[in-house]
Amino acid sequence: MDIPDFLLELGKTAPEHQTWLETLPFHVQQAKEKWTLTLGEPYIENASCSYVVPCKTAEGREAVLKLGLPHEEALHEIDGLRVLNGDPTVYLIDFDRNMNAMLLEKCVPGTQLSVLPEEQQDEVFGNLLPHFWKAPVPKGLFRSITSKFALEEQEGLNHFPDPELAKTGIRLKYQLSEASHQEVLLATDLHAGNVLKAERKNWLAIDIKPYLGDRAYDLTQHLLNCKERLRNKPEMTIRRVAALAGVSPMRLRDWTFARLASESNGKHQNLAVKIREISF
User: Which CATH number fits domain 5-105: 3.40.50.300, 3.30.200.20, 3.40.50.1450, 3.40.350.10?
Assistant: First the structure.
């Protein structure tokens, strides 16, 4: 079995990653036998920490096999897919928690949303994300997004270009979470590379990282992938995205500032300052 280079490099980053990598061929073979699969060539693009490969079942059904590296953000991916049941995600056909393996619906043609202009992407996100937020969530199944902020604090903020701005961003994240009237199911990492063209529905989400939290948080990942537009037309961009999804533009501005200020080692703190200055 050929292991993609990006996974080989990932194995060098931590002992537990290398351990997972060493067991990967065995687990792929196990999954292949468990579900009687014929495997194709693994996907390389947009697969940063998972072995993802198109496959065909014994009945001839096209599917995708995914074996993910266990990590905090993706802890409840299987649970999220089960709750959403194909709306607005791909279907989870079957799964094996011991291997962290998922047999998933295959999107055809599978074109990424990123091929469309950002303004058209806005409309897709404005339609997709409310389906997450309306999902019935079993009590106690998912973690609050605040647990993610706690991990960010543990990583340390003093090495950021402006540590005080980073700490302000973290504090604001907690304040926004506490002020939220209702915690809903969030995708958290839904960007244009994780939304694929499909036949069953026009666009389907993949690679979700479920948490509970404030609706407006969920739109920030798309905005963070539109940094040039944020720099050039910050108010117009935030107003548009907020309106399409039915959230408060002020809350979306605040979440966007908080993330830019306190994430990515502070690379985007200058943009964070610009976003904070927007007045609605």
Answer: 3.30.200.20
Confidence of residue 197 (pLDDT cuts 50, 70, 90): very high
Contact (CB, 8 A) for 210 and 77: yes
Mind listing the pLDDT tens digit for each residue in 169-178? 999 999 999 9
- What is the fold, at CATH topology level, of the domain defined by 115-198+209-276? Aminoglycoside 3'-phosphotransferase; Chain: A, domain 2 (3.90.1200)
250 to 165, 220, 232, 237: CA distances (angstroms):
19, 13, 18, 12
Whether 158 has a pLDDT exceeding 90, the answer reads: no
Task: Flag whether pLDDT at 280 surpasses 90.
Answer: no
Phi, psi of 169 (to 5 degrees): -60, -45
The residue that leads in pLDDT, 46 or 3, is 3
Give pTM, 2 decimals.
0.94
Give Dmax over CA atoms of the chain in angstroms: 58
Measured at the alpha carbon of residue 44, what is the angle toward residues 40 and 47, in degrees to the nearest 5?
110
* CA-based nearest residue to 218, from 190, 257, 260: 190
Percentage above 70 pLDDT, the chain: 99
